[in-house]
Structure formats: C-alpha cells, structure tokens
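Input sequence (445 aa), recorded before submission:
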Amino acid sequence: MRNVLGQRTVQSAPIRRRAVLMGMVGLAAGAGCGNAGGGEAGGKVTLRMAWYGGGARDTKYNGILDRFQKKHPNILVKRESAEWGDYWERVSTQAAARNLPDVLHFTNMQLREYASNGQLMDLGEASTKAELDLGAFDKPLVQGGEVDGKLYGVPTGSLILCTVVNTTMMNEIGVTIPGPEDTWTWDDFRQQGMIAAKKLGDRRWFTLDFGSSTRIFKAFMMGRNKQLFDIDQDPPALDFGRQDLVDWLTYWEGLRKEGIAPPPNVTAEQDGLPFEDDLFAKERVGIYLHTSNTLTNYEEYIKGDLEIRRLPNSEPATHPDDYFFSVSMAVAAASKHPAEAAILINYFMNDPEAVKLYAGEFGPSASSKARGIARKSQTTEERKVTDFTNVMLKVGVVPDQNWPRGGQQLNDQYLSRANEQVAFGKASPKAAADELFSNMESAMS
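Predicted structure, token format:
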C-alpha cells in the first residue's frame, strides 16, 4: 500500500507489507554524488538532500527546494530520491563510506541505529542549534527525534495511530463507534465486528486484517504497559513476552474465523493494489487501523463519511496506548556545512510558503504555528486530521521508541510471517511466536 507518510502509508497493517515498500525508484532532478557537502567558487555551498518516495513527493520536494534556492542563492541543493527499499540500501552503503547526504530522512525504525553509530549530528550543537527555530514545536513531538536525550532529527510531522472509520457504512448496519475522545477496548472492537459480520453480507468485512501490523501490535503492547523493545539491555531485546504475541495472533485468527476480518486469500489479493482499488476504498471494509493520514489518503475514493477515533485499548484501559511516530530530517555528522543544512531543514518546517507546499507530507506539522498556517487552506478532511492531532496532544499522546539495531526486521519480515503462518494454517500461534522470538534474537544480537 502506498505511503501514509506523505503519499500513502509507511507501514500498512494487513498481512501484506506493501505499505513499507512504497513509492518509486528515481533520482530527483539535480541529484548529485560525492562527499557530503562541498564548496564552490564565489562562496556558494553545495548540499545533498535525500528522501524516499517518488512521484508526487519528488514533485513537492523539488518545488520547495527550488524556492529555497531562490531565497538562499548561496546554497545549491543536489537531490537524491529513491523507493523505500533502495533508499535504505543506499544510505547503508553511504554510511559505511562516511558519505551520507548532508540532510536525509529517518523514521523511528532507523534513527537510533545511525545516531548511536556516530553517523548523525547532535542538533543541539552550536553549529546547527542557532539555525533551528523549534520554539513552536510541541515538546512530545520533538522528543520523537531524540535518542538518549539528544536531538538527532527534526520531526517533520506527527503520525498518530488511530482508527479511521467509514461512519456511513457503519451507521447503516447499526455498529456503535466511540466518540472522538472516548476510549474503547479490543473486546468492544470484536463485539462491534460481530454485529457487522452478521449484517454486511458476502465479501464485506468490519476491518482489514491488521495482525501483521507492527504499529498496531505496539499499541496492543502499550495497553499491557509494555513496549516492543527493551533498549536498556545490551544487546537490546524484545520487551513483550511470547504469550503476549500468542494472544495477539490468536485474537486476529479469531476475527478471521468469525468473518470480522477477511480470510487470508482475500488479504493476499490486496498486495500491490493501488489505493483506489483496495477493500477500504471499495467500501467492502469499514475500519482501517493506522495513522490519521489514512483519512486524507482515501477521501477522494470513498463516498461515505470518514472519521478518526482512538485505537482500541486493553481491558481495563489503565495504560494509554495513544502514540505517534515521526519521520525526521537529520544532518550527517560528516557534513561540511551543518549550519546550511540546518537552515534548509528550518525552511521546510517554518517558512510559511514551504509549510503550505509541504502540506503535512508526513502528517500534521510538529509545530503548532505551522499547523495553524496549514489549516487555513486545508480541506474539511485535512482539518479533521489536524484537529485530531491537537486533541491527542491535549490527551497526552507519546512518541514511539526509536528502535534498536535489528528492530526493523520485526516490521519488515517477522511479524508478517507469523501472522501469515497462522492465517494459512501453517503454524499455531505458539509455534509462530517461538519462531519470531528466535529470529528477532538473532537480528538484534
């Protein structure tokens, strides 16, 4: 599924993993190679900036960068863009050669590893701090770019995990969805799913299969007062237990058997489909568990009204599971021009025209001022996302962990594999959990 972190999703929930492998492979106009940063005759500075995505994102970034260069004629920005998988392969190669771009993008799945390896600059240092205006940034959102108390990434936005509901579809069949600030439990979710399963008819379901979603599994663990990873151990380890994972896999197997979620063959058919052709867009499914941006990604394809609600929680809901993750812009430690790199990041985050053009590419801005600027020109659906962000900040939404080295394998491979094995009857929840723990121990060692 395409990336919700801008174009569509960063990580989709269903058995399919196309959300992580999104975008197009390409080198944006003006892409360059060579050492991180460089000088030119006449005092000009050359920066390299890299991002993942393609297509619409390339167009948006190039438009902002063209305007930046007009405003800062002494800074030339060479641009490097690639599809998600190729982007990280390239970054890994560049890091090994100490040749990272001056400015590049990280999610919380990679930021800790590169910061801990000395590849990224502490943005609290004088050379960058003076050029970054974070005064209007909400503190919890800034914390999303911190590793061990130091700021290594400026969050570009806030991707809050939530329930996106086709309320028209759900109201027609008598399903009860909580109010905007109300909580509900995973048992509530199942009970309403059972009502939907009896009334929706053939080949329509209450929810997609999110048993493969690391992002939603993380919220499930938060409801049990646990995290995905224990980063204080050396080496890091999983923070949840085997029984936690067994419970999760069993829960989704139950939803599939009860007709609340699609059977695995139907979910597998969704792999690689464009947004407009998937089950949610076709209104054959009424619930999508992911980031709040999901609403705006689907608004043009769905006739019914879409609303955002909080995720289900454990019973009793004594431990909140409201959290977000961010995509951050970071500066390479080897950059020869850290001040100019910080000026570039600051332009994306704070310049009024750039804010309008950026338009919440990776979720509503981490800056309350920027959110206010953007909201003036937003559609009704886009304002729902911004308003939900503001509400959740008041509720007390918290940042996700910055994952340890090897942690990304839980997202990219092993949770999906475990859910698929259970769904297709190839393994019991316990056997699938045992295999995942073995694989993750190796990945993080």
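Checked by second reader. The CA atoms of residues 30 and 96 lie 24 Å apart.
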